[in-house]
Amino acid sequence: METHRDYRTGQDWDQLAALVRWTQEFSLVQGVVAAAKTTFAMALLGVETALPAVVVGLVSFAVYTANDLADLEEDAINNPEHSSFVADHPVVVAALAVGTFALGAALAWWGGGTVAAAVACVPLAASLLYSLPVTPGGRRLKDVLGANTTLVALAWAVTVTGVPLAVAGAPVGPVAVAVCLFVYLRTFISVEVFNVRDVTGDAATGVDTIPVVLGVPRTRQLLALFEGCSLALVVALMTVPSVALVALSALPVLGYSLGLTWFLGETGRMKAFCLAKDGEYLLLGLAALVV
Protein backbone atom coordinates (compact mmCIF):
# COMPACT_ATOMS: atom_id res chain seq x y z
CA MET A 1 0.00 0.00 0.00
CA GLU A 2 1.44 3.37 -1.04
CA THR A 3 1.96 5.74 1.87
CA HIS A 4 1.70 9.52 1.76
CA ARG A 5 5.48 9.75 2.04
CA ASP A 6 5.96 7.38 -0.91
CA TYR A 7 3.50 9.47 -2.90
CA ARG A 8 5.38 12.70 -2.09
CA THR A 9 8.70 11.06 -2.97
CA GLY A 10 7.29 9.98 -6.31
CA GLN A 11 6.08 13.51 -6.94
CA ASP A 12 9.51 14.92 -6.08
CA TRP A 13 11.22 12.56 -8.53
CA ASP A 14 8.68 13.43 -11.25
CA GLN A 15 9.31 17.14 -10.69
CA LEU A 16 13.06 16.62 -10.79
CA ALA A 17 12.80 14.62 -14.03
CA ALA A 18 10.59 17.34 -15.52
CA LEU A 19 13.15 20.00 -14.53
CA VAL A 20 16.00 18.04 -16.14
CA ARG A 21 13.97 17.58 -19.33
CA TRP A 22 13.14 21.29 -19.36
CA THR A 23 16.78 22.33 -19.01
CA GLN A 24 17.73 19.89 -21.76
CA GLU A 25 15.04 21.19 -24.10
CA PHE A 26 16.00 24.84 -23.65
CA SER A 27 19.77 24.55 -24.08
CA LEU A 28 20.67 25.03 -20.41
CA VAL A 29 22.20 21.57 -20.37
CA GLN A 30 24.26 22.44 -23.46
CA GLY A 31 25.65 25.50 -21.70
CA VAL A 32 26.63 23.51 -18.61
CA VAL A 33 28.10 20.75 -20.79
CA ALA A 34 30.22 23.24 -22.73
CA ALA A 35 31.49 24.78 -19.49
CA ALA A 36 32.41 21.34 -18.14
CA LYS A 37 34.14 20.40 -21.41
CA THR A 38 36.15 23.63 -21.22
CA THR A 39 37.06 22.93 -17.59
CA PHE A 40 38.63 19.63 -18.62
CA ALA A 41 40.48 21.27 -21.51
CA MET A 42 41.74 23.98 -19.16
CA ALA A 43 43.15 21.36 -16.78
CA LEU A 44 45.13 19.84 -19.65
CA LEU A 45 46.27 23.28 -20.83
CA GLY A 46 47.29 24.43 -17.35
CA VAL A 47 44.83 27.36 -17.28
CA GLU A 48 43.46 27.98 -13.79
CA THR A 49 41.02 30.91 -14.12
CA ALA A 50 37.34 29.93 -14.42
CA LEU A 51 36.52 32.71 -16.89
CA PRO A 52 36.96 30.65 -20.10
CA ALA A 53 34.50 28.01 -18.88
CA VAL A 54 31.93 30.72 -18.14
CA VAL A 55 32.45 32.32 -21.56
CA VAL A 56 32.13 29.06 -23.51
CA GLY A 57 29.09 28.05 -21.44
CA LEU A 58 27.31 31.32 -22.24
CA VAL A 59 28.22 31.16 -25.93
CA SER A 60 27.03 27.57 -26.17
CA PHE A 61 23.70 28.40 -24.58
CA ALA A 62 23.26 31.35 -26.94
CA VAL A 63 24.17 29.45 -30.12
CA TYR A 64 21.96 26.44 -29.38
CA THR A 65 19.09 28.70 -28.35
CA ALA A 66 19.38 30.62 -31.64
CA ASN A 67 19.63 27.32 -33.51
CA ASP A 68 16.16 26.44 -32.25
CA LEU A 69 14.81 29.20 -34.49
CA ALA A 70 16.63 27.79 -37.53
CA ASP A 71 15.49 24.22 -36.89
CA LEU A 72 11.76 24.78 -36.52
CA GLU A 73 10.88 22.52 -39.49
CA GLU A 74 12.89 19.54 -38.23
CA ASP A 75 11.93 20.09 -34.59
CA ALA A 76 8.25 20.15 -35.52
CA ILE A 77 8.72 16.41 -36.22
CA ASN A 78 11.44 15.47 -33.72
CA ASN A 79 10.26 17.59 -30.80
CA PRO A 80 6.87 19.22 -31.51
CA GLU A 81 6.28 20.49 -27.97
CA HIS A 82 9.54 22.41 -27.87
CA SER A 83 9.14 23.58 -31.47
CA SER A 84 5.71 24.95 -30.65
CA PHE A 85 7.09 27.03 -27.77
CA VAL A 86 9.87 28.48 -29.96
CA ALA A 87 7.43 29.24 -32.79
CA ASP A 88 5.07 30.99 -30.38
CA HIS A 89 7.81 33.09 -28.71
CA PRO A 90 10.42 33.86 -31.39
CA VAL A 91 11.21 37.33 -30.05
CA VAL A 92 11.82 36.03 -26.53
CA VAL A 93 14.05 33.20 -27.80
CA ALA A 94 16.01 35.55 -30.08
CA ALA A 95 16.47 38.16 -27.33
CA LEU A 96 17.69 35.50 -24.91
CA ALA A 97 20.19 34.21 -27.47
CA VAL A 98 21.50 37.66 -28.39
CA GLY A 99 21.77 38.85 -24.79
CA THR A 100 23.58 35.74 -23.60
CA PHE A 101 25.99 35.78 -26.53
CA ALA A 102 26.77 39.47 -25.99
CA LEU A 103 27.56 38.77 -22.34
CA GLY A 104 29.85 35.86 -23.25
CA ALA A 105 31.69 37.89 -25.91
CA ALA A 106 32.08 40.84 -23.53
CA LEU A 107 33.56 38.62 -20.81
CA ALA A 108 35.93 37.07 -23.35
CA TRP A 109 37.10 40.53 -24.45
CA TRP A 110 37.51 41.63 -20.82
CA GLY A 111 39.54 38.57 -19.92
CA GLY A 112 41.60 38.03 -23.07
CA GLY A 113 41.19 41.00 -25.39
CA THR A 114 40.21 40.91 -29.04
CA VAL A 115 41.76 37.49 -29.67
CA ALA A 116 39.63 35.81 -26.98
CA ALA A 117 36.52 37.65 -28.18
CA ALA A 118 37.18 36.61 -31.78
CA VAL A 119 37.63 32.96 -30.81
CA ALA A 120 34.42 33.11 -28.76
CA CYS A 121 32.60 34.22 -31.92
CA VAL A 122 33.69 31.15 -33.91
CA PRO A 123 30.61 29.06 -32.97
CA LEU A 124 28.32 31.90 -34.05
CA ALA A 125 30.04 32.13 -37.43
CA ALA A 126 29.84 28.35 -37.79
CA SER A 127 26.16 28.42 -36.84
CA LEU A 128 25.43 30.95 -39.58
CA LEU A 129 27.30 28.88 -42.16
CA TYR A 130 25.52 25.80 -40.84
CA SER A 131 22.01 27.23 -41.12
CA LEU A 132 22.11 29.47 -44.22
CA PRO A 133 21.95 28.28 -47.89
CA VAL A 134 25.61 28.96 -48.74
CA THR A 135 26.37 26.04 -51.09
CA PRO A 136 26.27 26.49 -54.90
CA GLY A 137 23.07 24.45 -55.04
CA GLY A 138 21.39 26.60 -52.41
CA ARG A 139 21.56 23.91 -49.73
CA ARG A 140 22.50 24.59 -46.13
CA LEU A 141 25.73 23.01 -44.85
CA LYS A 142 23.43 21.45 -42.25
CA ASP A 143 21.91 19.38 -45.06
CA VAL A 144 25.24 18.19 -46.52
CA LEU A 145 26.59 14.81 -45.38
CA GLY A 146 29.78 15.17 -43.34
CA ALA A 147 29.98 18.96 -43.65
CA ASN A 148 27.39 19.50 -40.92
CA THR A 149 29.04 17.53 -38.12
CA THR A 150 32.58 18.45 -39.18
CA LEU A 151 31.79 22.17 -39.03
CA VAL A 152 30.12 21.96 -35.62
CA ALA A 153 32.85 19.79 -34.09
CA LEU A 154 35.64 21.97 -35.49
CA ALA A 155 34.03 25.18 -34.25
CA TRP A 156 33.68 23.91 -30.69
CA ALA A 157 37.15 22.33 -30.68
CA VAL A 158 38.71 25.67 -31.64
CA THR A 159 36.63 27.58 -29.10
CA VAL A 160 37.05 25.21 -26.15
CA THR A 161 40.82 25.17 -26.71
CA GLY A 162 41.35 28.70 -27.99
CA VAL A 163 39.46 30.77 -25.40
CA PRO A 164 41.49 29.41 -22.43
CA LEU A 165 44.75 29.92 -24.34
CA ALA A 166 43.79 33.48 -25.29
CA VAL A 167 42.71 34.41 -21.76
CA ALA A 168 45.92 32.95 -20.31
CA GLY A 169 48.08 34.45 -23.06
CA ALA A 170 49.59 31.01 -23.65
CA PRO A 171 51.08 29.82 -26.96
CA VAL A 172 49.74 26.98 -29.09
CA GLY A 173 51.92 23.92 -28.47
CA PRO A 174 51.71 20.16 -29.00
CA VAL A 175 49.48 19.64 -25.94
CA ALA A 176 47.07 22.31 -27.18
CA VAL A 177 46.88 20.64 -30.60
CA ALA A 178 46.18 17.28 -28.94
CA VAL A 179 43.49 18.83 -26.72
CA CYS A 180 41.86 20.49 -29.73
CA LEU A 181 41.78 17.18 -31.62
CA PHE A 182 40.42 15.39 -28.54
CA VAL A 183 37.58 17.92 -28.19
CA TYR A 184 36.89 17.63 -31.93
CA LEU A 185 36.50 13.85 -31.70
CA ARG A 186 34.33 13.99 -28.57
CA THR A 187 32.08 16.65 -30.11
CA PHE A 188 31.77 14.75 -33.39
CA ILE A 189 30.62 11.68 -31.47
CA SER A 190 28.10 13.65 -29.41
CA VAL A 191 26.62 15.42 -32.44
CA GLU A 192 26.04 12.11 -34.23
CA VAL A 193 24.44 10.59 -31.13
CA PHE A 194 21.96 13.46 -31.15
CA ASN A 195 21.50 12.96 -34.90
CA VAL A 196 20.38 9.39 -34.18
CA ARG A 197 17.75 10.87 -31.89
CA ASP A 198 16.63 13.23 -34.70
CA VAL A 199 16.89 10.78 -37.58
CA THR A 200 13.13 10.78 -38.35
CA GLY A 201 12.83 14.54 -38.69
CA ASP A 202 16.15 14.88 -40.53
CA ALA A 203 15.18 12.22 -43.10
CA ALA A 204 11.78 13.83 -43.64
CA THR A 205 13.27 17.29 -44.26
CA GLY A 206 16.23 16.26 -46.43
CA VAL A 207 19.02 16.66 -43.87
CA ASP A 208 21.73 14.14 -44.79
CA THR A 209 23.28 13.22 -41.46
CA ILE A 210 25.44 10.13 -41.03
CA PRO A 211 22.66 8.09 -39.33
CA VAL A 212 20.23 9.03 -42.12
CA VAL A 213 22.62 7.97 -44.91
CA LEU A 214 24.56 5.08 -43.33
CA GLY A 215 21.96 3.81 -40.88
CA VAL A 216 22.35 3.49 -37.13
CA PRO A 217 24.44 0.23 -37.04
CA ARG A 218 27.15 1.66 -39.30
CA THR A 219 27.04 4.96 -37.45
CA ARG A 220 27.68 3.05 -34.24
CA GLN A 221 30.74 1.39 -35.81
CA LEU A 222 32.10 4.74 -37.04
CA LEU A 223 31.67 6.34 -33.63
CA ALA A 224 33.38 3.37 -31.97
CA LEU A 225 36.37 4.08 -34.23
CA PHE A 226 36.34 7.72 -33.09
CA GLU A 227 36.16 6.51 -29.49
CA GLY A 228 39.33 4.51 -30.13
CA CYS A 229 41.08 7.57 -31.59
CA SER A 230 40.10 9.57 -28.48
CA LEU A 231 41.56 6.86 -26.28
CA ALA A 232 44.80 6.91 -28.27
CA LEU A 233 45.09 10.67 -27.76
CA VAL A 234 44.56 10.34 -24.02
CA VAL A 235 47.21 7.62 -23.81
CA ALA A 236 49.59 9.91 -25.71
CA LEU A 237 48.87 12.76 -23.30
CA MET A 238 49.62 10.46 -20.38
CA THR A 239 53.25 10.45 -21.52
CA VAL A 240 53.46 14.21 -20.81
CA PRO A 241 54.33 14.52 -17.09
CA SER A 242 52.54 17.85 -16.54
CA VAL A 243 49.15 16.51 -17.72
CA ALA A 244 49.52 12.76 -17.13
CA LEU A 245 47.22 12.64 -14.09
CA VAL A 246 44.48 14.67 -15.75
CA ALA A 247 44.66 12.49 -18.86
CA LEU A 248 44.53 9.36 -16.71
CA SER A 249 41.32 10.61 -15.05
CA ALA A 250 39.62 10.60 -18.47
CA LEU A 251 40.02 6.85 -19.00
CA PRO A 252 36.97 5.75 -16.93
CA VAL A 253 34.86 8.42 -18.65
CA LEU A 254 35.91 7.16 -22.08
CA GLY A 255 34.95 3.66 -20.98
CA TYR A 256 31.54 5.00 -19.95
CA SER A 257 31.15 6.73 -23.33
CA LEU A 258 32.16 3.63 -25.28
CA GLY A 259 29.56 1.64 -23.37
CA LEU A 260 26.88 4.13 -24.43
CA THR A 261 28.06 4.06 -28.04
CA TRP A 262 27.85 0.27 -28.03
CA PHE A 263 24.12 0.46 -27.26
CA LEU A 264 23.37 3.43 -29.54
CA GLY A 265 20.06 3.01 -31.32
CA GLU A 266 18.94 0.08 -29.18
CA THR A 267 16.71 2.10 -26.88
CA GLY A 268 13.43 3.88 -27.51
CA ARG A 269 14.26 6.53 -24.91
CA MET A 270 16.72 8.57 -26.92
CA LYS A 271 16.17 11.77 -24.92
CA ALA A 272 17.35 10.03 -21.77
CA PHE A 273 20.17 8.40 -23.75
CA CYS A 274 21.36 11.80 -25.03
CA LEU A 275 21.21 13.20 -21.51
CA ALA A 276 23.41 10.32 -20.36
CA LYS A 277 25.78 11.14 -23.22
CA ASP A 278 25.96 14.76 -22.06
CA GLY A 279 26.81 13.42 -18.61
CA GLU A 280 30.18 12.33 -20.03
CA TYR A 281 31.33 15.96 -20.11
CA LEU A 282 30.13 16.60 -16.59
CA LEU A 283 32.22 13.64 -15.48
CA LEU A 284 35.25 15.00 -17.36
CA GLY A 285 34.80 18.41 -15.74
CA LEU A 286 34.44 16.83 -12.32
CA ALA A 287 37.55 14.70 -12.89
CA ALA A 288 39.51 17.82 -13.81
CA LEU A 289 38.39 19.63 -10.68
CA VAL A 290 39.21 16.69 -8.44
CA VAL A 291 42.63 16.08 -9.96
Automatic annotation (TrEMBL):
Record has Zinc as a keyword: no
Keyword rRNA-binding on entry: no
Highest taxon above the source species: Archaea
TM annotation in the entry: 50-70, 91-109, 115-132, 144-166, 222-240, 246-265
Topology versus the membrane: Multi-pass membrane protein
Main location: membrane
UniProtKB keywords: Membrane, Transmembrane, Transmembrane helix
Localization terms from the record: Cell membrane
InterPro entries in UniProt: UbiA_prenyltransferase, UbiA_sf
Signal peptide positions on this chain: none
Name recorded for this polypeptide: UbiA family prenyltransferase
Organism per entry: Haloarcula onubensis
